Automatic annotation (TrEMBL):
Highest taxon listed in the record's lineage: Bacteria
HAMAP family attached to this UniProt entry: PurQ
UniProt KW ATP-binding keyword: yes
Active site, renumbered: C87 (nucleophile), H196, E198
Protein name per UniProt: Phosphoribosylformylglycinamidine synthase subunit PurQ
């Protein structure tokens, strides 16, 4: 079978086409979905892409979390469908309470763009099982509201339950608590992260590596993992 992975476009989405391309390169079938619809078109997994949904008014991801299609996203998450939120999509997931905590303005109050080193903390999710726990990867990062925050009690629960999916290594670019770059839910089907794996899926267009310029493809593993997870569920 071919895994059909929906990519939802919101007003202000910038990286939806990139996410569709990543799905295609991973061997899946990308399906374009619209924020104002209540139809997931029978997809097997979902990606909430990066960008500036609804202009980031109120808070980044806050309005998008109330979009019509998010009712279906929440239902799908409860049923175990693999769902990935990238940057603005991660912001949507926390605003929709599908992941804990919140994301606020970077500590230095500036937009940042860099090839970011990450450590894979949880390799038991639908989107990360192609990695190994402790593995270092490099994924492009670009955000202004990427500082992860939560209460001390919530942070204790996140750490205790192993819900940190990724941590920043080398530098914490936005002031996130405990260097948290990404989270998973307890079931492991919902994952959100601030860096952009869809920008590291093809040689010549990814991060710099010691072997060759722009040759980094660590992001592709997110999407091949999801395709494999979908096939394994059938």
């Amino acid at each position: 079978m071919t895994a059909r992975i929906g990519v939802i476009t919101f007003p202000g989405s910038l990286d939806d086409r990139d996410a569709q391309r990543a799905v295609r390169l991973a061997g899946g079938e990308p399906v374009a979905l619209w924020h104002g619809s209540h139809d997931l078109d029978g997809v097997d997994a979902l990606v909430l892409p990066g960008g500036f949904s609804y202009g980031d008014y109120l808070r980044a991801g806050a309005i998008a979390a109330l979009a019509p299609i998010m009712s279906e996203v929440k239902d799908a998450a409860a049923k175990g469908m693999p769902i990935l939120g990238i940057c603005n999509g991660f912001q949507m997931l926390v605003e929709a309470h599908l992941l804990p905590g919140g994301l606020i303005r970077n500590a230095h109050q500036q937009f940042i763009r860099r090839d970011q080193r990450l450590v894979v903390e949880n390799a038991d999710t639908a989107w990360t099982h192609g990695f190994e726990a402790g593995q270092e990867i490099v994924i492009p990062l670009k955000n202004a509201d990427g500082g992860f925050t939560c209460s001390a009690e919530t942070l204790k629960q996140i750490e205790g339950d192993g819900l940190v999916a990724f941590r920043y290594r080398g530098v914490n670019p936005n002031g996130s608590l405990d260097d948290i770059a990404g989270l998973t839910n307890e079931r492991g089907n919902v994952v959100g992260l601030m860096p952009h794996p869809e920008h590291a899926v093809e040689p010549g267009f990814g991060p710099q590596t010691p072997s060759a310029m722009r040759s980094g493809t660590d992001g592709l593993t997110f999407f091949t993992s999801a395709v494999a997870a979908v096939i394994a569920r059938v």
